[in-house]
Structure formats: C-alpha cells, structure tokens
Amino acid sequence: SGRLLEVEDLHVEFRTREGIAKAINGVSFHVDAGETLAVLGESGSGKSVTAQTIMGILDQPPGFVSGGEIRFHGKDMLKMSEEGRRKIRGHGIAMVFQDALSALNPVFTVGFQIGEQFRIRKGLSRGDAKKRAIELLDQVKIPNAKQRVTEFPHQFSGGMRQRVMIAMSLALDPEVLIADEPTTALDVTVQAQIMDLLADLQRERQMGLILITHDLGVVADVADRIAVMYAGRIVEEANVHDLYARPAHPYTVGLLNSIPRIDEKGQELRTIKGLPPNLMRIPPGCPFHPRCPKAQPVCVEKVPPLRVVAPARGSACHFAEEVLRGE
Ligand code: SF4
Ligand code: MG
Prior knowledge:
It is built from 13 helices and twelve strands. The protein is of the alpha/beta class. The strands form two sheets. An eight-stranded mixed sheet has the order 6-7-8-3-9-10-12-11, sandwiched between helices. Strands 2-1-4-5 form a four-stranded antiparallel sheet, with helices on one face.
C-alpha cells in the first residue's frame, strides 16, 4: 500500500505485579504525508503508549506488543530486525516529548545536543554539525540562533526549550513526526505558538504529523483528522470539523463540553463524571458505560465495535446515529 504509517489492530499489555494491564486493545489508524492526525484522550487512554510502541521505547513498566502491525511504507516494523527499526527511528519517524527539560541534557549546549545526531548518524565534523544546528534553530524560529546555539538548556524559556526539542527531532528529516503533549507544560499563548510552528513545519516538509493531546482545544486549528481514544481503543474518528460540529460518541460530547469557551464566560464547565477505567479491570461491554449518560443495558453486555456511521466517520457507540442527531 502507499500509506506512510499504518497501525493495525495493535494490542499492547503491561505485566505488573498486580496483573496484566491492557493498555492498547485493537487500535488502527494511519497517517499520510502532509497530513496531521490528532490522537486525543485522557491520561491512561493509551495515546502515549501507542506513540512509545511506534518508537520502540516501550519499556517502563515492561510492556509488550501482544498483537497487530505497525507498517512504515508498507513494512511491518514489529517484524524487522533491531537494525532495521533503528534506521527508521530518527530518519523515518521522530518524536517530540512532552518534557523538554528532562529530555535535554543539562550539561551540554543545545548546539552540541542537536549536532550530535549529525555527527553520530551522518558523520559530520563538529563544525559542520554546529552549522546544521544553527540552521535548525533558525527553522524553529529561535531568535539569534548563532549565539543561542552555544547556550545550555536552562538558559531557555519553556517555550524556547520546546523549540529546541523540535529542532532536535527534525535533525534527520523524518517523514513522520510524533509530538506527545508537546505544549502541556506551557502557558496558553506559548502553546498556540508551538502548535503554529508544528503546523508550519508539517506543511513545509510535507511530513505526517501525529499530535497526541488531552486538550481538544489545542489541536483544533492544526489537525486534519482526530482519533479519540478511551481505555486503549479508538472510540471515534472523524475530520476535525465534523467532530466539532457533530460528535458521534458520548465521550467526545463530554470532551467538547469540557473545553472552556470564550463566549460562555462565567458558565460552569461540564466535565465528564467519574474516572477512566483501571486497565487491569476494563468494564465489560462498552468500556465507557459507567460514565456514559446514554448507557443502556446492551452497553454492559456488548462491546461496540468502531464502525462507519457517516461518510469518513467512525464511532464505537451502539447509539452513534442518535448521538450524531444530537439526541
Ligand atoms: Fe454510551 Fe452505550 Fe454508546 Fe458506550 S455504547 S458510549 S455506554 S451509549
Ligand atoms: Mg501521556
């Protein structure tokens, strides 16, 4: 197939002392060149685990893939040699992590850390690597890149540090960039700037971009499609405008209602009652049923599969058509 990155029926489990936690339960999605997919969910929904599985850094606590495929240009990465996978990571697929401060080494300059990839993986000299680091700092719009390249991570503001992380992830010209909560630690204005930067870079480089977030408001302007995750499953998938206009799953309805809106100042925020399930004891039937205002007896008995409910729209709710109609 011509797809850039495809995840198909992925299952991931964690062995813990208390039992097996089912973190990912049959997740499928794809991202193509020049396209932005947002993966949305609360913490524990499996969105970060999905990213970590793609990047092969699923190791704490010991997680393992119990089924499915992750195809890059049609080839299943899970069946490749470690060497084959290493080639894809960085060049093919790169990741921006949520916590720039702990991902950067405090004792090296940012220029050294960005340049390291050029030295190690492309064999550039120190001088050339530094030049490339300056170019990248320019591309992520850090002012005075020539001077700042010799500074240490703590000398950068939170937003500028996240730009450094993005520069680092771009060093090997990845075709797919995965950004896991890239703006969580930042204030709202800086969040918007970083999202704009990611959107610009995605367009300029025609990358496939996967934005992982718990905040629908943050990704609304930059995503093409959204996959909503709950209890390790995708419960709704749609293009961003359709999803906003007419959600097709009660969980998405709840998420939309919990976004603060400027036009509704002073109005109380409606949050979703209850908590996401313990992944060692996922409720039977629809995993959302204990929190769902629309739940019926069938929801406790039958798992609703993700199915097409309207053109280019998927929902894993027995009553998706009613939800779509706003009932
Ligand atoms: Fe709610 Fe039932 Fe739909 Fe699950 S299947 S989201 S419990 S109405
Ligand atoms: Mg996370």
